[in-house]
Amino acid sequence: MVGGLFRHLRQNLDFWRNNVCINDNVLQTAHEFGVVKVVSCLSTCIFPDKTTYPIDETMIHNGPPHESNSGYAYAKRMVDVHNSACWTQYGRRYTAVIPTNIFGPHDNFNIEDAHVLPALVHKTYKVWGSGHALREFIYSLDLARLYLWVLREYDEVEPIILSVGQEEEITIKDVVDAIVEAFGFTGPVIVSF
């Protein structure tokens, strides 16, 4: 169960409950059927709200996630805990990938439920927030290729961040500026707080 900021705010408990159940069912069933490798998908929102940059995989459990999506973030963190326990108790090489913010064809552009980039495309003329928040993005097809690489080549239990190798995160304002330029938009860009 995934969604954007406003859906997380409305359904925080639903995100926690549904994702914990999904994760447990998938990993337990895989174990019971002797599946030797499972690659689960986490999210960058699992990282602590108060952190330093750049972030890396060792920082997942270093503090609480942002309260706006804590249900989802904690449920996803439990995948890492479950994977580690499967390794310790049964020697299962279950791992997880942490893709940066995904975008691509067939994305969800609904302003209430979309993730950052498709929501910004939808609101090319309006940005919510200061524009200073940092993000890193990955195109969905690049993520799919990296996911296959993890499935075939990555034999660790520890989660791995999947990124296209940008040197650093970019600000939301920079993303908005790029979208405005790509659309050839010449009107005002309104920033609201």
UniProtKB/TrEMBL annotation:
InterPro entries: Epimerase_deHydtase (IPR001509), NAD(P)-bd_dom_sf (IPR036291). GO terms for molecular function: GDP-L-fucose synthase activity. This is NAD-dependent epimerase/dehydratase domain-containing protein. It comes from Pygocentrus nattereri. PANTHER family: GDP-L-FUCOSE SYNTHASE. Residues 3-165 form the NAD-dependent epimerase/dehydratase domain. Transmembrane segments: none annotated. It holds the Pfam family Epimerase.
